[in-house]
Amino acid sequence: MENTNVNEIRPEFISAERFRAAEFATDWACGYGDVLNTRKYWQEDFSPIQHRIFSWVGKNRDRIKGLKTLEEVEELMIADGIITRDDI
């Protein structure tokens, strides 16, 4: 029987760059899991703002790799218009 799930991600449709970006964003989120759960922008259900954050983190991984705190990353996200101070 053919799989008709259009939301299924198939490896042959994902570029290596997109895969690396998604992998980094997932690792980043897991690393800050407890702290992220205290943020207004990190909701229980995956939200549009979380999608923007994941995309931004993946694309900006070289900028944030050396940062030590979530607050430093949030400052970059604010500067780039991804979140606002009120979102924190």
Report on the structure:
- There is one protein chain.
- This protein has helices spanning 16-31, 33-36, 48-59, 61-64, 70-79.
- The protein is mainly alpha-helical.
- The N and C termini lie far apart (46 Å).
- The longest helix is centred in the N-terminal third of the chain and has 16 residues, at 16-31.
Q: How is this structure best summarized?
A:
This protein has 88 residues and is mostly helical. It contains 5 helices and no strands. The N and C termini lie far apart (46 Å).
Secondary-structure topology with pairs:
Blueprint: H1 16-31, H2 33-36, H3 48-59, H4 61-64, H5 70-79
Helix pairs in contact: 1-3
Secondary-structure-based class equals: mainly alpha
Low-confidence stretches: none
The shape, in one word, is: globular
Order of SSEs, N→C? HHHHH
Strand content: under 5%
Task: Count helical runs.
Answer: 5
Q: What average pLDDT do the residues reach? A: 88
